[in-house]
TrEMBL record:
One GO CC term on file: plasma membrane
Database matches in Gene3D superfamilies: MFS general substrate transporter like domains (1.20.1250.20)
Transmembrane segments: 20-43, 49-72, 145-166, 172-192, 216-235, 255-272, 284-302, 308-331, 343-362, 374-392
GO molecular function list: transmembrane transporter activity
Name of this protein: MFS transporter
Source organism (scientific name): Algibacter marinivivus
Keyword Transmembrane helix: yes
InterPro entries according to UniProt: MFS (IPR011701), MFS_dom (IPR020846), MFS_trans_sf (IPR036259), MFS_Transporters (IPR050171)
Length: 411
């Protein structure tokens, strides 16, 4: 047991102290956004908005996320990742505190949009910082550490948020949300100041390529959008399926969804370290992750046995653990040829767009076609994702072979 534990700890070795600080800042920031899971409840119960109004406000949430990711990428390429992260965090803290004082429909639409605009400027800047503070051979594991921080933050946030609402009400939630963002800024200022931190992979491109003209990256982004759409069903339509079809209690649903975070915390870093040393390319690993995630839906139609839900959750979790870190590493690697902020912004936007369309599309399919047909359709969408990743693999192989031929001719 001691050997197993030591081997687990060894998977975290070699990462720079800046990456560890970045993970802590991300943990504070993600745990601090505890208002997000309770937003729909706050709007319906405290402010008495209709479900239609709540849907519109949540759409503003998604639009703000898209705009923020794009703007964050632009600013990262212009003024640098450090300034963007500092300004994003402190502004998000102030806006979260101010959000509690808005109580009309249009004011909240604008307020939520601005909060997400400013908050999601952080993401592309953080990815570029992560790339700068990681050695090339450690980038995928660095991404995995950040994912662990995000998962821990999302796990702790709702639990703490529920406690705060019970004791201090929604007003206390907004105050603590804002203060944690500002605290994250203080940590960032103290430990990741460019004058104090060590850059391990400083990439300067004299004539950067535009991410918008990168054919391989465009194929990759569409595939990631489709992957996001199918993955997000586990946090929108799937809990309803658990409740209505398999008659699970809230506790059982919570345990099943919680198993996802627990498995990620326990296995993702060792799994990624092992796969990094395998003969498979990042594209092949993303392909495998997408296949597992798509398979987690189709197996639900095989049997009415409730145990299949555990199998589905396990397949999705393994698929997620493989697809997300290697897709992120692929994007960071691709970004070396152009404006890093622009590349990482588009990567973030792909998932923001999935948030805008994925939840609504899943709900409408369930409402119109029922769960079984929805799972067939989600699997087909997963099939298109897999097909695009196969095309990407072929495109990259062809390009690599062409470069090798040109090099041979020149020599």
């Amino acid at each position: 047991m001691n050997t197993l534990f030591n081997n687990y700890l060894n998977t975290f070795k070699g990462l720079s102290k800046e990456v560890w600080w970045l993970a802590l800042i991300t943990l504070i920031n993600r745990a601090g956004t505890m208002v997000i899971p309770f937003l729909s409840l706050y709007l319906t119960e405290d402010l008495q908005f209709t479900l239609g109004n709540v849907g519109t406000i949540m759409m503003c949430f998604g639009l703000g996320s898209v705009a923020g990711s794009w703007l964050g990428g632009k600013l990262t390429d212009t003024i640098g990742y450090y300034k963007v992260m500092v300004r994003s965090l402190v502004s998000t803290g102030i806006l979260f505190i101010a959000l509690q004082f808005l109580n009309t429909f249009y004011a909240l639409c604008l307020g939520i949009f601005l909060v997400m605009l400013v908050a999601d400027m952080f993401r592309p800047a953080m990815f570029v910082a992560l790339s700068a503070y990681s050695k090339p051979e450690n980038k995928t594991r660095s991404v995995t550490l950040i994912r662990l921080a995000i998962n821990l933050g999302f796990s702790a946030g709702p639990a703490v948020g529920g406690l705060i609402i019970t004791t201090l009400g929604y007003s206390g939630l907004f105050w603590i949300d804002g203060i944690t963002c500002i605290l994250a800024t203080v940590v960032l200022f103290m430990v990741l100041n460019p004058k104090k931190s060590t850059v391990l992979d400083n990439i300067i491109v004299a004539n950067p390529d535009s991410a918008y003209k990168d054919k391989a990256f465009t194929i990759f982004l569409i595939a990631m959008f489709l992957f996001g759409v199918i993955f997000l069903q586990y946090f929108s339509t799937m809990p309803i399926y658990y409740r209505e079809v398999h008659i699970l209690s809230e506790l059982e649903i919570g345990l099943l969804l919680g198993a996802n975070g627990f498995i990620i915390f326990l296995l993702e870093m060792p799994l990624i370290k092992w796969l990094e040393n395998s003969r498979f390319s990042k594209t092949e690993l993303m392909l495998f992750g997408a296949i597992l995630t798509a398979a987690s839906f189709i197996i639900l139609n095989i049997t009415t046995w409730s145990g299949i839900l555990i199998v589905g959750m396990f397949l999705m979790t393994i698929g997620e653990m493989i697809a997300f870190p290697f897709s992120n590493a692929f994007a960071m690697e691709r970004a070396k040829k152009g404006n890093q902020g622009e590349y990482m912004a588009l990567y973030s936007i792909a998932f923001s767009m999935a948030h805008i369309f994925g939840h609504k599309a899943g709900m409408q399919m369930v409402d119109g076609w029922g769960f079984d047909n929805t799972w067939y359709m989600i699997t087909i969408i997963g099939g298109f994702c897999v097909l695009l990743l196969m095309i990407l693999k072929s495109h990259l192989s062809t390009k690599k072979n062409l470069k090798a031929e040109i090099k041979n001719i020149k020599s």
